[in-house]
Structure formats: structure tokens, C-alpha cells
Amino acid sequence: MQVRVGILTAPHIDFIQYEKTFVLKHVRIGIGFHWDRLEDQEFAGTLEIIHNPDGTETAVNIIDMEDYLCSVISSEMSADSPLELLKAHAVISRSWLIRAVGHTDHVGYDVCADDHCQRYEGLRRMKDRAVQAVQETQGQVLTYAGEVCDCRYHKCCGGRTERFSTCWEDIDLPYLQSVECPYCGEADSRQSLNDYDQETTDYHDWQVTYTQQELHDILLEKTGIDFGDIVAITPLRRGASGRIYELKIVGTRATKILSKELTIRRAFSRTCLYSSWFDIHSTPSSLHFIGHGWGHGVGLCQIGAAEMAKRGCTYQHILSFYYPNTQLKQV
Ligand SMILES: [Zn+2]
Ligand SMILES: [Zn+2]
Q: Residues within 5 Å of ion ligand 2 by Cβ?
């Protein structure tokens, strides 16, 4: 199976063609998140450039699915991570991809290369162990009741994983339930993160403090609403992990209810809060967010899974822990 991966849209795509690979210049990664940056990235497969109606160009890489997966798991995690972690990741990234093709809102390609879909950052972070993990799980997917699972995953759950409906549509899937995760908090599995993720050290428990004026300005920028002075920020509904999915902001000039975890994370940060699992302590001059976890919290906790692998768990064990009642199948 071939995958069309949309990597970069720019006024003009800058690339260098080599014999078997090509390098794309100035690829933006982590769009809108705290690790947002530019990189030059090298890819195998073929490059197609789409000329968009608005005058921009989009670089699309057409590549075999198993080769795509080798890069994905080396982009999501360090390719030096324990083999069983990489094998678990290969299975869920393959399952997610099979479900996603034809069902994303992208036009001209199947999936994008950034965190919106799965990270796909080419060849430069890849190691032999990632190739081994993909080969040893070749064609394996997770299934529930005969269907390939929507295998969501995130960086660090913070102690408990979250339900699907906290983040996306108001449905819950039997294999994306909230499980207590004792693994991501106990040991330092930071070595399993890739190079730039290792810059983030406080992912399990974190704090952010704003002055009234700072928070007013951020909310204005992110929601377009001038709240005036913030009178109260009240969580109305929390998911099973503690992640807030409905929250009320009361200001002297406006009141607004925000829904779903990513909307809430984006509203309260210049980039994006680590998660929507937080409590707020306010003083007359400042607002103090005390939070847990990094990411939406649904499905596999990457740091927790890395720790399980380090302790000797097999990839089958890791997958059945984060996706209960599922079965491994060959496609
Ligand atoms: Zn995408
Ligand atoms: Zn966890």
C-alpha cells in the first residue's frame, strides 16, 4: 500500500533532489505547539508538487506504508528506545493510518506529516531498530470486533488516560477507555523521547502562571473575545482523567463557555497548554495553572509505554494495557 503524505505548503517549495532521496528545506513541525520550529528533512520515495489555486505549492511524498511507518515511529519517539515500545508504536501507527486514509480533511494527500495526523519527519531520525520494529510487526494491526481500531496516542497521560469523547465526537469506543497508568510518573523515561521533545522536562506535572493582563491578552488573541478583567474561570465538566472538556470564562466584559480539550488548551496559551487537566488558583494579580500530563490523554501513553518496555513488558502486553479487549491481527 502506498501512502500520500502532505509535508509542506509554502509559496514556493525549496528542495534538493539526490539520487535516491530528496531534501525539503524549512519544513515547519509542531505547528501551533510549544515545539513549533523549522527543519530541513530528507525523504525516500517520490516527491510530487501540487500547485494550489491560491498560488502556493504543497510537497507530497508518495511512499510505501511500511517505509512511512519506520519514519513515523522514529519521529514520534527516539529510535534508540526499547524495541518493544517501537513495536507497539508500529502496530498503532499502522492501525491509525489504515483507519485514517480517506477519512481526513486533507485534500490532495492522505495524511499530513505533522502532529495533526502522525509525525513523519523523514530519514534523519531513523535507526536500524525502528526498521526492525516495523519488520517484526509487519502487517499487524489492532482490532476490536473484527474492525481495525482507531489507535489514538499521546505523550504522557499524567496518571490516567482519557476517553475519546472528551476530545472529539461525543461517542466512546470500547477500547479507548480510561485506564490508570502508574508508568509515566514513576521513572524518568525521557530518553525514549526524540531529540526536541527532550527539551520538555515537566510533562507529568506542570505549572503556568499569568498576570491578569497576560491572560486577558492571550484570550483576546486566541478566542477573539475581549473579556475585560477575568472574574472567574470555572471548569464545568471533566473527563475520566480530570481533563476539562467544558469550561466557563466570566470577565467584566464577556462570558463564554469553551468545549473540548484542544479548544481549551489553545485558549489559555500563546501556543497550547500541555493538557486540559488543570486546576486554577487565582490571586488578585495572577492566575496559576497547576496541571498534569502532555497531550489529549486518549489511548497509548508514549512515556508510560516506554517505561513498560524498559521493565520488560512485551509489545502485546503494552497494547492490551492501553487498548483493553483488542486483538492483534495480520492484514
Ligand atoms: Zn493531518
Ligand atoms: Zn501515562
A: 157, 181, 184, 301, 304
pLDDT digits (tens, 9 = 90+) for 293-311: 999 999 999 999 999 999 9
Nearest ligand to the CA atom of 110: 1
Ligand nearest to the CA of 9: 1
Span from the CA of 120 to the centroid of ligand 1 (angstroms): 11
What is the helix, strand, coil percentage profile of the chain, to 5?
A: 25, 30, 45
Q: Among 267, 163, 289, which residue's Cα sits nearest to residue 223?
A: 267
pTM attached to this predicted model: 0.94
38 has pLDDT over 80: yes
Residues whose CB is under 5 A from ligand 1 (ion)? 112, 116-117
Specify the length of the chain in residues. 331
In the chain, where the domains are located:
2-196+296-330, 205-292
